[in-house]
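Appendix B. Raw example, untouched.
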Amino acid sequence: MTDDTAPVNATDPIDAARLGLLLGDLRLPAITHIWPRFAERADKEGWPAARFLAALAEHELAERARRRIARHLAEARLPPGKTLDAFDFDPVPMLSRAQVMALVAGDSWLEKGDNLLVFGPPGAGKSHIAAAIGLGLIENGWRVLFTRTTDLVQRLQVARRELALEAAIAKLDKYHLLILDDLAYVTKDQAETSVLFELISARYERRSTLITANQPFGEWNRIFPDPAMTLAAVDRLVHHATILELNVESYRRRTAVERRKGPGRPPTRATINTAAD
């Protein structure tokens, strides 16, 4: 019987094919791919065995992190191009880049299940900053899901009809941050708002929720038909929350005005058809 614990003879030739199989069995695909190149370099530079092994392990861990981030980005469904680098902070003086970067670090508020609420008029950049924060968090190792509030509410309504609402909400627990974009477009309907309230209640003090909304809290009675439900939803969201207000002119409107100006055109003649917003 072969003794698998017997020491390897350093003069034995390396069976590359067998080594590849062993690394595959150990589920080390990055090392399987890179070890011949690292081994060649180690031989040329006279690396100690420990350095060679450490280099392989570091490469494997880095590749695992890269693949994990790629998976989390794919599942997050973030709108493309919405990064912090692409966000113009200048027209939003009330929004601090330093504060946003601290939120992206995410190592305290997400662990506590705190919430993030972003208010502002249509076109102010709420969805952009929400998606950018989500992207930064994913790159830092957190799991995020970005969804239009109406889309998720409809899916939860289907789950309720199939007597699976609790399970559907539980599946969302894997996301450290759930981004509900455009809360205002939820229909003031008991069926829709009740599943939204159950989602908010289920995540309360456990998992974080980011909500973008056009209306301030005082107008949320347009979303929740029951005043008591409105107060309860606001209480759960605000209890542990950071609130960002983007009370600025619509970015889309401002961009359209700039396009209408044209080169050398006086600013007083820059007009836009407001019906097109």
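End of appendix B.
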